[in-house]
Description:
- By secondary structure, the chain is of the alpha/beta class.
- It has helices spanning 17-25, 68-83, 99-110, 144-154, 173-188, 192-195, 222-229, 234-251; strands spanning 2-11, 43-49, 52-58, 86-92, 115-120, 134-135, 157-158, 198-206, 210-219, 254-263.
Amino acid sequence: MIKCGYVGVIGRANxxxxxxxxxxxxxxxxxxxxxxxxxxxxxLGILNGENYQIILVDTPGIHHSKNNLDRYMxxxxxxxxxxxxxxxxxxxxxxxxxQEEIDYINMxxxxxxxxxxxxxxxxxxxxxxxxxxxxxxxxxxxxxxxVIESIVDSLPECSTRIYxxxxxxxxxxxxxxxxxxxxxxxNMFDKEVPHGIAIETERFDEKNDIVIIExxxxxxxxxxxxxxxxxxxxxxxxxxxxxxxxxxxxxxxQVLLKLFVKVDKDWRDRNYSNYGYKF
Length: 279
Ligand SMILES: Nc1nc2c(ncn2[C@@H]2O[C@H](COP(=O)(O)OP(=O)(O)OP(=O)(O)O)[C@@H](O)[C@H]2O)c(=O)[nH]1
Ligand SMILES: [Mg+2]
C-alpha cells in the first residue's frame, strides 16, 4: 500500500502557490511571476516518493471576478476545493492580512475540510506570525520537507499510484510552451497588457530533428499589440528567443518558433473559451 491522493493548493493571487508546486515537484510545472493572477488553469504537479504519490493541484489565486475569464478561474478553485483529499492554504507572510482573508480562513476552518495552513516567503521580513501555520520558503526550501510529511500523513492509502511514475504533470508539452510564452510576456510588460494576453498555437509539427511551432499572442487592444511587438520587433524577438530555448530544453530537439501578435477585443469576456479556458 502507498499513500496517494490529490492536494489542492489554494490562496490569494501572488501568495506563492505555483512556486511551492514547482519546488515540491522539482520541475517547472507552472509559471511564476510577481504579478497577481498568473495562474489561470488548474495544473497538476506530481511528486513521487518510495511509498507515496502526491498529486498537487495548482489553482488560480482567489480574487474578485471582473470578467468571464475570472469566473472561469474561480470555478477552477471551487472544483479543486471540492475534489481533493487535502488542501494547502497559503498566505504571504511578507504582507499584512486583511479582513477578507481572515474571514476566508475562518470559513475554511468551519467547513471541516482537511487543510494544512502555510505561511509562505519566510525568507523575507515577516509582517505576520500566524499560529498553527507552518512557515515555509519555496526559494530557500525551508520546511519543505515538513510540508511533504504533513501531506503524506493526511493522504489515504491506495493499492497503486494514480499516475505513472515518470509523469510530473498532466499538461502537454504544447501547453507548457504556451505558458512559457505567456510567462515571458507577464515578466516583460506592465499594467493591463500582460493580463489581457492569451496564447494560441497554430502549428506544432515534429519533424525528424526539428520542431516547428507557430503561435499567436492574443491581446485585447491595438495599443497593446504595439507594446508587445516593441520597436522594430524588439520585444517579440526577446520573448521568441527565450521561449525557443525553453522549448528546446523540453523537447530535446531544435525548435523553430514563430510568434505573431493578434488583437481580439475584450476576449476575456467574449471569446475566453477559445484559448483553452474551457471545461
Ligand atoms: N522571497 C520569496 N518569494 C517568493 C516565494 N514564493 C513565491 N515568491 C514570489 O512571489 C511571487 C508570486 O509567486 P507565484 O508562485 O507566482 O504566486 P501564485 O500564488 O501562484 O500567484 P497566482 O498564480 O497569481 O495566484 C513571485 O514573484 C515569486 O517569485 C518565497 O518563498 N520567497
Ligand atoms: Mg500561480
